[in-house]
Amino acid sequence: MWFTRSLAVCLLVVSGVSSSSSSSTPSATPAQTKRYAILDNDWGAVSFIPILLALKGDMEILGLASNTANTWQRQSAHHALANLELANLTCIPVLPGSTHPLLHTPHRFHTWEALHGALPWQGAFAPESQDGNDPTSGDPDRLVREAFIEGFPRGSIDESRSAASFMVDMVRRYPGQVSIYSAGALTNVALAARLDSKFAENARELVVMGGYVDVNMLQVVGDVELANVNSDINLMIDPESAKIALTAPFPEILIAGNVANQIPSTQAFLDEVHEVRNPLTRLFHDHYGTEFPFWDETAAAVMVDRGVVLNTTTAYIDVDVAFGSPNYGNIHVYQKALMPPGLRNVTYVHRVDGERIKGMMKEAMQNPPSC
Ligand SMILES: *[C@@H]1O[C@H](CO)[C@@H](O)[C@H](O)[C@H]1NC(C)=O
Ligand SMILES: *[C@@H]1O[C@H](CO)[C@@H](O)[C@H](O)[C@H]1NC(C)=O
Ligand SMILES: *[C@@H]1O[C@H](CO)[C@@H](O)[C@H](O)[C@H]1NC(C)=O
């Protein structure tokens, strides 16, 4: 995988040299190579920060993809658009992702829960929401307008192109330069990897929010909320896709699992960001809340600036896809000498510089980027 990529870089350099006598533009050196990103998420009402972080980090965002994890894909795509409208960033397109996981359905998920125990947060598979929250179960295509506290989007989603085919096309256009960021289910990433067998190796990297390891005890020693923040809904909503994506030959896979719980949201930080008043700091201050850590933001910061990462382990990784297992949809890590065949190594992030990430978030919201 690395070999393929460095070979591609060599070829680029060679072609740059050989064409230097002609009028074509010389290739950039790897350090100057422009970085692109596709951000795939189960977008919610206050989910613009990863977008701002990527733009502030000099990445060009090719598009936002929607997936089904916390809520159904269609609602999530509209939240993506609403967040872009609020941030005046509608130059970025929203690509509708797959509404359904590869195999999983609410019924199948509840059958699994009956066998193995309930999850505190069941994402889109939770019993049908009735109270103005993002939709769960029921009709996957319905939009719940009351849940758009950021404002219902004025524009509409272009349904003519799917997120997976967009990912494939963009990686073909910019080989070695596109970071795929996944902070929800991995359905679209798996579909792209299956559509084009060169997709993963020609991307730059896959950065994932999710993939907790050894958190079972944390589901017991505290309250249901502690169990909640240690459950892996992003992978569990579509275990088969998670396995396909996390074993695909991306040059690098970065996992922000347990570490995503490292930076708690605090009232003091919400207030500090709101010292500068704009629509983004207001929405963040009034509606982000202090219940959940900065999950998606941590993964985005890791993608943008590897300097925030303080400690990592290289691990070979698999996803449990046995329906009869209590760990269905959770990851298992191996060292090379002991792993089964077919796995690949990932960079498992253990510790990040929380103050630096909060500094990046604050700057991005107080001084937001434009199109
Ligand atoms: C977006 O543009 C509107 C209209 O110009 C402006 O009032 C608003 O503050 C802008 N939002 C941000 C986040 O800059
Ligand atoms: C990195 O994190 C791992 C897992 O938490 C820990 O065992 C190890 O001691 C850490 N290493 C450093 C240098 O902090
Ligand atoms: C990860 O796997 C790649 C490809 O097999 C290999 O080149 C690289 O050395 C591995 N990294 C580590 C740290 O083991």
TrEMBL record:
InterPro entries: Inosine/uridine_hydrolase_dom, IUNH, Ribo_hydro-like. This is Inosine-uridine preferring nucleoside hydrolase. The keyword Hydrolase applies. Pfam families: IU_nuc_hydro. It comes from Aspergillus taichungensis. Keywords: Glycosidase, Hydrolase, Signal. GO terms for molecular function: purine nucleosidase activity. Residues 1-19 form the signal peptide.
